[in-house]
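Repro:
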Amino acid sequence: MSTKDSQLAPLTGWQLWAAAFFLSMANLIAILDMTIANVSVLTIAGGLAVTPTQGTWVITSYAVAEAITVPLTGWFTERYGSVKVFVVAMAAFGIFSGLAGMSSSLGFLVFARVLQGMAGGPLMPLSQTLLLRIFPKEKAGAATGIWAMTTLIGPVLGPILGGWICDNYTWPWIFLINLPIAAACAWICWKVLRRYETKIIRKPIDTVGFVLLVIWVGALQIMLDEGKNLDWFTSPMIVGLAIVAVVGFVAFLIWEFTAAHPIVDLRVFRHRGFSAAVITISLTFAGFFAANVLTPLWLQSFMAYTATDAGMTTAWIGITAFLVAPAVAAMSMKMDPRKLVFYGIVWLGVITLYRTVATTNMTYWDVALPLMLLGLGMPFFFIPSTAAALGSVDEEETNSAAGLMNFMRTLSGAIATSMVTTYWEDEITRHRADLVGIIDPGQVIANELSSQGMSDAQVLLVLERMVVEQSVMLATNELMLVVALILIASAFFIWLVPKPARSIDPSAMH
């Protein structure tokens, strides 16, 4: 921060609350766009005439692009100033949201979502940083509280709003609603906050590091998204993408460890505690996010839920997490965070195990209850795991560590989404093939249906529906078992983290 900047008085009156409102809205829409598409995948896939698996590219493309730019936020702000970066990112987010809403093909929509994700990456950390800068020091708690409220409300509101828009309007509006909000946020924040601009440090641009990062991450994600459609490694394209991803990753590691001014400081991984905590965070988030993406697909495709109903159901995770998060934040400042993380992740694994006995005749509350219980465990994972990771690095490395941690978490969620949808469809096909031969060996069901006046064609349709429903249920339960085992196994990695030498204020956890 420059001398001039440090001498500026905090905002007061209507300017303070106007700036706080629009900074919070910026954070909210960035988070909304992570979850609003989850319940909209089927509607988007139907509108663009693609498969549900291809529809999930709308989620993974945004997540991967955001994962790339989050750890670069610190570098951008040092070179261009935090207010300029925030305002440009906010305006770009609105423009690219408009492009996503006007898409008429999956390819263009994915392209727009990549750009939208890259613009959205800096919004969350910078919205908190700027809030803390404009509030008086004695009201820093209020600034953090405002930011935390939007961070917690976003995952609740996203599925509900996405489902309601898809059921009552058309899917492009889940993106177009960002336009007026982004325009207002960018304009108001520039007018009010530009005098709080930070000092610019002209660091050299690590162009090679940035290009290598985009290449290996992009190649890996395209390989995972397209693998099933191209029959994996029988396809020269998939083999080529795999080679590019591996070579690009190795080159990126070598370059970033030896560059004088790396765009991502990988040296923080020398801390055993940080590395172990990041492994725990990545594995747990991958399992949780995979199950969270699969749930609305299952509900809408095979349980006759509307998009709104699916959104209202999955929102229970966010509601219960919102209720317990303040208590967990306080506990993480007083207790060993490793214990909270361990028991929190084990809880997530046990509840996911409970979901492995789902049936096709489940009521709404049969579906919603385990989701509510999952929400109770989420803060015990998210908040203290961040404390364990950031508390394991040197204080001056906190920003680099936070960026890398968020990169790994977001990337693991995107990779898990691609893998889980492919695995789910493959298992549905396999179980259907197994069930076709045993569904009605004695023709008992067929004869009963025929006696009720059904034609042979109608009998076949009923039997086919029974086979598909049970195949989906078996595949879903099997997938939940895999996720549960991954969650429980990941809990034990946290014990590789030494007890953090310093505590981290939850307000610093982007």
